[in-house]
Design a protein that fits this description.
By secondary structure, this protein is of the alpha+beta class. It has seven helices and ten strands. It has a domain at 85-242. Strands 7-6-5-8-9-4-10 form a seven-stranded mixed beta sheet. Strands 2-1-3 form a three-stranded antiparallel beta sheet. Helix 5 runs antiparallel to helix 6 (203-219). The longest helix has 28 residues, at 3-30.
Length: 243
């Protein structure tokens, strides 16, 4: 074998090695960046817990060990609260069409939570522009609580009553009620902002909304009656138990 053959072979091997490195680099660049705990910077899975920063109502991603540190309501010193993990479906929820109309919410979805900073229950509905506040009369909420005592068990700031009356989920009489972590409401608002197109939203956003509520149904615990005492707010969720 001549020296020129050896040189050519070396060049071929070098070129092949460079191709492998380029492919590896491209694959690394294509991978989405891993999420990190915003308190200790450890890498966390896609499904993870959140803290709510009360002053700004923003979510903070945390790992399981950090979430345990905030498991007690007083551990956040009035600045943070751990977002619960339970999702409850309420098939016995009592609400008339007249009560819904009295809320004057312009869309068929809304969520309600008790704000400790505002010292009242607040109502929001998702929109392409983000969450929109709707004026909620105190007597209207009190009437709902009277008919549904389970609402007394909502964790302030971090748990919400989520109502879905979207007509494409089963016709005019379709009604669906959940108690959900507040981050689920943020997720719903986010997907509507991301996928809404034109005046009517487009097929993609309504499909995403249907999939969102189907996911809630799948992981929710069905609570019949008026109490959720069996399902504490900060008990482990289904995906955490599987892990």
């Amino acid at each position: 074998m001549s020296s020129s053959d050896l040189t050519n072979n070396d060049e071929d091997r070098s070129a092949a090695s460079l191709d492998v490195l380029r492919q590896f680099t491209r694959r690394r660049e294509m991978r989405p960046p891993a999420e990190q705990c915003e308190l200790c910077s450890v890498e966390i899975p896609a499904h993870h817990r959140h803290l709510l920063e009360l002053s700004r109502h923003t979510l903070i991603c945390v790992c399981t060990p950090c979430s345990i540190l905030f498991g007690d309501p007083g551990s956040g010193h009035g600045k943070y609260r751990l977002v619960p993990s339970r999702t409850l479906m309420l098939p016995d929820f009592q609400m008339t069409d007249e009560q819904w109309d009295d809320l004057m919410i312009p869309v068929n979805m809304a969520y309600f939570f008790h704000s400790t900073s505002a010292h009242r229950v607040m109502a929001f509905y998702p929109s392409p522009a983000g969450p929109m506040e709707s004026t909620l009369a105190l007597d209207g909420w009190d009437a709902l609580v009277s008919s549904n005592p389970i609402l007394n068990e909502l964790e302030p700031d971090v748990e919400a009553l989520l109502i879905n009356r979207v007509k494409n989920r089963g016709g005019e009489s379709y009604r669906e009620h959940f108690i959900v972590p507040i981050d689920a409401c943020y997720e719903l608002v986010g997907l509507i902002r991301l996928k809404w197109k034109g005046l009517s939203g487009g097929e993609e956003v309504w499909k995403a909304i249907a999939e969102f509520f189907a996911g809630l149904q799948k992981r929710a615990t069905v609570v019949e009656g008026s109490s959720a005492d069996t399902y504490p707010a900060n008990s482990r969720s289904a995906w955490e138990r599987r892990g």
